[in-house]
Specification:
CATH architecture: 4-Layer Sandwich
Largest sheet: 8 strands, mixed
Mean pLDDT: 97
Radius of gyration: 17 Å
Number of strands: 16
Family: Belongs to the carbon-nitrogen hydrolase superfamily. NIT1/NIT2 family.
Bound molecules: the ligand NC(=O)CCC(=O)C(=O)O
Protein name: Carbon-nitrogen family hydrolase
Oligomer: single chain
Keywords: Hydrolase
Low-confidence stretches: none
Number of helices: 8
InterPro entries: C-N_Hydrolase, C-N_Hydrolase_sf, UPF0012_CS
Pfam family, one: CN_hydrolase
Length: 265
């Protein structure tokens, strides 16, 4: 398989807490804006829980039921613009439990995969209100094998390693990651890219929620660990191109996957 160039656009945006209607409207205007640049994106990605934010005390009432609204809006957009979308994540009501779920759509608007956050973040009370996912996030994007994790998941290198061992060449990470942990965010994302010799693409929200300040710094990091795009702390569309042939080149240069000795650890 020839591995393509993927033009990526990350919708680094503010989220209005507990206001899905406003967030849908805001997201759609940003999606239209993302399609206007001189380089047409192949894939768009949004931040974590963009439909509700962390309005956890009301989350059962405002979560998207079986993701139906998200599926209908995003699928129509994909068809209209011939673009892939990694839609979030969203707060998703699934059989009476709310999960933090990413839905993936192809250029025809077909739902191709979903992934629900496995590691719930106690510092933001997720474990009190949300149910966790129970399987890793594999999917295919324009023929490229990809993986997905959500925010706090990046602190668990076992998960990204498993995705890489099972074929992922690029890892997508939506997030709501706040100050004062910018240093952790940047370091962990770069580490996941370097150790797995794969692209890591992250989209973090901006704005404030109560006293919590979200810093953006959405990133596209190549398999050598070089940052090829990074956002600032305000709303913006962060753009960059991933050359997927680089994954094999880096894995050939330092054969980490051949040199593993899992029988010893
Ligand atoms: N929404 C999240 O999972 C936040 C994770 C986070 O901030 C961290 O430090 O980890």
């Amino acid at each position: 398989m020839t591995k393509p160039l993927l033009n990526i656009a990350l919708l680094q945006m503010n989220i209005h807490i507990g206001e899905p209607d406003r967030n849908f409207e805001h997201l759609l205007s940003k999606m239209e804006q993302a399609m206007q640049g001189s380089v047409k994106p192949d894939v768009l990605m949004f931040p974590e829980m963009w439909n509700t934010g962390y309005a956890l005390d009301r989350i059962h009432d405002i979560a998207d039921r079986q993701g139906e609204r998200t599926k209908s809006v995003i699928s129509e957009f994909c068809r209209k613009h011939n673009v892939n979308v990694i839609a979030g994540s969203i707060a998703d009501l699934d059989n009476g439990a709310v999960k933090n779920t990413i839905y993936m759509f192809d250029r025809e608007g077909k739902l191709t995969a979903d992934y629900s956050k496995i590691h719930l973040f106690r510092l933001m009370d997720e474990e009190k209100f949300l149910a966790s996912g129970d399987r890793p996030g594999h999917f295919t994007l324009d023929g490229v094998q990809a993986g997905a994790m959500i925010c706090y998941d990046i602190r668990f290198p076992e998960l990204s390693r498993r995705l890489a061992l099972e074929g992922a060449n690029i890892l997508f990470v939506p997030a709501e990651w706040p100050h004062p942990r910018l240093h952790h965010w940047r370091t962990l994302l770069m580490a996941r890219a370097i150790e797995n010799q794969m692209y890591v693409v992250s989209c973090n929200r901006v704005g404030t929620s109560g006293t919590t300040e979200f810093f953006g710094h959405s990133m596209i990091i190549d398999p050598w660990g070089e940052i090829i795009a990074e956002g600032g702390e305000g709303e913006e569309i962060v753009r960059g191109t991933a050359d997927l042939s680089l994954t094999d080149e880096v894995r050939g240069r330092i054969p980490v996957f051949e040199d593993r000795r899992p029988q010893l650890y």
